[in-house]
Amino acid sequence: MPAYAALLRAVNVGGTGKLPMSELQAMCEAEGYAGVRTYIASGNVVFHSDLGEAQVKAALERRLQAYAGKPVRVLVRTAAELARVLAANPFADEAPSRTLALFLDGAPPPDALDTVSHQHGERLARGEREIYVAYGAGMADSRLRVPAGEAGTGRNMNTVARLAAMAAALDAAPPAPPSRPARARRSG
Questions:
Q1: Is the separation of the CB atoms in 160 and 101 below 8 Å?
Q2: What is the pLDDT of residues 82-106, one digit of tens each?
Q3: CA-CA distance, 166 to 79, in Å (whole number)?
Q4: Local confidence band at 172 (pLDDT 50, 70, 90 cut-offs)
Q5: Helix and strand element counts for the chain (H, E)
Q6: Beta-strand relationship, 34-39 and 123-126
Q7: What are the Cα distances from residue 174, in Å, to 26, 49, 53, 82, 118?
């Protein structure tokens, strides 16, 4: 059963999309995911599931829509994919708190970096299913717009590292098979 990380877009940031992590954990457990653990309040959760990525994504998006009354995008990665995102960071020389991976559902289009606007010192690079952004001095004053990433969600490299470690730990210790109810013995 693979370990996944689900990254929710626009949850508990800037006063939008309020979602207690206990609710997110309960939603995942209600879907039958095992070993569910959340990380910080911005919509990060790791778990085991025997479903494929598309099924996990669809199930969580349905539950979140029912909870929030509006669509909430979910980006899903396996433990191995998160490890690759971390290892492929082209800006490893930058502060991890100021460098992020903008997670996408698919590969960024070839012209993804050509459509960027308001770039003032930020460095960008395409990844497999992400766009990396190094903010240099910080994100607070940045007005960077990345149209190819508008449907995605960003996580700084500290968060990516922590989620990769959490998912790897789940992979290293697969959940026990579901217990079966004891059958009654027949007398006699």
A1: yes
A2: 999 999 999 999 999 999 999 999 9
A3: 8
A4: confident
A5: 4, 8
A6: unpaired
A7: 20, 10, 17, 18, 45
Say which CATH topology domain 3-81 has: Alpha-Beta Plaits (3.30.70)
SS3 category, 55: helix
Domain ranges of the chain: 3-81, 85-161
Q: Which amino acid is at 3?
A: A
Q: Taking a C-beta distance cutoff of 8 angstroms, is the pair 9, 74 a contact? A: yes
- Cross-strand pairs, 102: 131, 154
- Note the pTM of the prediction, 2 decimals: 0.86
Q: Cα dist. 107→3, 70, 110 in Å? A: 21, 26, 9
Q: Say if residue 184's pLDDT is above 80.
A: no
Tokens 């299913």 -> residue: 129
Largest CA distance in the chain: 83
Assigned token pair, 138: 């910080």
Ordered strands of the 153-156 beta sheet: 123-126, 130-134, 99-103, 153-156
- Distance between alpha carbon 143 and the CA centroid of its chain, in Å? 23
**pLDDT per residue over 114-159, tens digit each?**
999 999 889 999 999 999 999 987 788 889 999 998 889 999 999 9
> Where does the pLDDT of residue 187 fall: very low under 50, low under 70, confident under 90, or very high at 90 and above?
very low
- How many residues are there in the chain? 188
DSSP single-letter state for residue 83: H
